Amino acid sequence: MSVTGDTMVRVEKDTLGEVEVPDDAYYGPQTARAVNNFRVSGRKLPPAFIRAQAAIKMASAKANMKAGKLSRKSGEAIYKAAREVRDGKFDDHFVLDAFQSGAGTSQNMNANEVIANRALEILGYHKGCYDVIHPNDHVNMSQSSNDTTHTAIHIAATETITNELLPVLNNLQDELDAKATEYIRVVKPGRTHLQDAVPVTLGQEFSGYSRMLELGILQLGRVLEDLKALNMGGTATGTGLNKPNGFSEVAIQEMNHITGIDFRLTENPFEATQGADTILSTSSALKGISVSLIKIANDLRLLSSGPRTGFGELLLPAVQPGSSIMPGKVNPVMAEMLNMVCFQVVGNDTTIMMAAQGGQCELNVFTPVLAHNILNSITILAGGVDSFNERCLKGITVNVDHCFKLAESSLALGTSLAPRIGYEKAAEIIYEAHRTNSTIREVVERKDFGFSKDEIEELLNPLNMTGEGHDRT
C-alpha cells in the first residue's frame, strides 16, 4: 500500500502490468485503466444495468457450482457479494463512463472486480488477493463480456419496463378512459387541417388518445416477450466455449428465481451475440408510444391555449408561474415537459438504430451505447408520463359552454345539410354564413328550404352530428 497525493492506493496487476487502485475502491486494475481511458461524458450506466449484471454473476456462480467447476466456498462468497451488488450496496464503485470499450468489456470487468474483492472480504482476505478469488477465472467463469452485456441489457430493460414503465402507462390510459367517459357528451368543434370540421365530443377525442396509447402498450408487451430471451452461456462468439454442459439451463433457472421473471434461453446464441434486433424493436415500440404522447400533449396545449386569445376549451392545472417578465402568465409546462421527454426518446432511437446496424461478423460491440440509450428512454418515459398524469391530466377542467358555442358557430355544421339539399347548395349556405358572419342556423332560417323548426333543430344540433345526441341501442 502507498500514498499518491492525499489518496491511499494499492498496487494491483493485470496482463499489461501494475496499476494503482484507490485503496477504498472495490474495483481493480482493469477498471482503473478504463477510468483513465474513457473520460468522456460523466454519465454512467444506470443502477438497473448494474443490478442485471449482478443477477448474471449470481446465476452463473450457482450454475458453475452445480457443474463442479467452482468450489462451494468460493461460489457462495461470489453469490453473496453479487447479491449485495444487486441490492445497490456498491453502486458507487461502478465508475465507468457510459461511452467506453466496445462490447462492454470494461463494464463487465468492473462487475467482476467489485464482486471478487467483496467476496474476498467475505472470506476474510484483503482486496486484491486474486489467487483466492480471481475476477476473470472465478467471477467471470463460463462467461464472456460478449454474452453477459447483451444479456444484462435484456434483463435491465425487462425489469424497468415491467416495474416502472408499464404501470404508469396503464395509469395514464386509465385516466384517459375516465376523461373519455366523463366528457362523452361535451360537444365541441372538430378540426381537420386546423380548420373547422364537423363536431365531435371531447370524450370522443379522449377515447382516441386512449386507444393510441393502448396500441402502444400492446406493442410494448409484444417486444417485452422477445426481451425475455437471454444469451446465457453463449460466451465469446455464441459457441459456448469454456462453459460446462448444462450451464445455460441451470443459469436460466437461477435467473428466474432471482428476478421473479420468466426468462428463457435464446433460440440462437449466434444471433443474440451478433445482433441487437430485439433492443431495436424495443426502442421502436418506445418511439411509437412517444409519438402518440407528443400528439396528445400538443393537442392539450392547443385546446388549452389562451386563456382569451386561443381555443380555450380546456383549462390545464396551474402548477407554476409561466413567465419571468409577464405577471400572471401560466404555461402548459407539464405538456411541454412530456414533449421534451418524447423528443429525447425519438433521438435515442436513432442512436440505437445506428448502434444496432454497426455489428460486424460475430459481435455487435456497441452494447454500452445500446444499454445507455434504451434504459434512458425507459426511465425518462416512465418519469415523464407519471409526472404528466399526476400534475396535469388528472386536474384538467373543461369550459363546457365555450365548447358548445364554438361548435354551434362552426361552418362545418352545413355538412349535415348536404344529403337533403345537395353539396353545392350546402356550400352556398356555408359561404354566405362566413361572408355575413352568421351561423349556419341563422342562414338556414333566413332562407326557405322547406325545413320545419324541428327539422332544423335535428339537422343542426351539434351533439346529434357526433352520434352521441340520441340514446344508443
Automatic annotation (TrEMBL):
Positions of the Fumarase C C-terminal domain: 415-467
Top EC class, one word: lyase
GO cellular component terms attached to this protein's record: cytosol
UniProt keyword list: Lyase
GO MF annotation, one: fumarate hydratase activity
GO annotation, biological process: aspartate metabolic process; tricarboxylic acid cycle
Domain Fumarate lyase N-terminal as annotated: residue spans: 17-347
EC number: 4.2.1.2
Highest taxon of source: Archaea
Protein name (database record): Fumarase
